[in-house]
Amino acid sequence: MFVNEERPCYDLDRIKVVTEVTGYLTNLTPLRIGSGKGSASFRDTTDNPILTRGDMPYIPGSSLKGALRSWLEANVEGLYGRLGQKYTKVYPITARDNEVKSCVKSSDTQGNQVEEYCIPCIIFGHKDLSARMNIMDATVEGSFKVESYTGVSINRVFGGQSPGHLFTFDYVSPGAKFRFRSIIYNVNVENETEEWREQVRRGVVFLLRSLEEGLFIGARKTTGAGLVKLQDIRVRTMVPGQPWREVKWAEVKL
């Protein structure tokens, strides 16, 4: 295997460890992930239907990935600030080539080692860098209820109703359970020896802990919608050629 010393995070040509995370996402507040206003048909009773597959609501993996990536980017300074600048630049741009540097290890003119790592890039991928964390669509399981909400646009100048701006949208009522599954490559969630790998591990653990505590996803988050929590979490890991092994998730440290 060829190891790129200047870009050490380009290592997915060889899988060293696979981690599977499963559980249930439960929405504590109304959840709305819409299919778009233009997708409404004459059969729909609302202007803005929710996203469904076979009449069953689901949370796209892309929506979960986007929410998690944005949350990690917003917390990079708090997670890695004490370690210096090499982990705090989410998108370090050079004036010369204007390219994102996901991970770079080199030496300056004085021979000092220079390292820069974009942890969100390493976890979720960017351009020619593959993602380590893959998130599947979360399909609803068990009973659920879809309700409609009627609202009206407010004129910001006069502070009153805008004529002709009545609208309706659907949402999944609180209490629904969505099956969560994520496959993560080359991240040992229990412990890593190399420093940059340890920071990637911390980023993954931080995201999963955040989901356990509750994150907002979907639309109308500023009005309290979309609060979900990851429950009944199960984590197991596998080294190629060996059987799956359960991880004691409660003992995993950030």
UniProtKB/TrEMBL annotation:
Domain of life of the source: Archaea
A Pfam entry, by short name: RAMPs
Sequence ranges assigned to domain CRISPR type III-associated protein in this UniProt record: 25-229
Keyword Nucleotide-binding tagged: no
GO biological process: defense response to virus
InterPro entries: CRISPR-assoc_RAMP_Csx7, CRISPR_Csm3_endoribonuclease, RAMP_III_fam
Keywords linked to the UniProt accession: Antiviral defense
Protein's UniProt keywords contain Lipid metabolism: no
Identification of the protein by name: CRISPR-associated RAMP protein
The organism's taxonomic lineage, starting at the top: Archaea, Thermoproteota, Thermoprotei, Sulfolobales, Sulfolobaceae
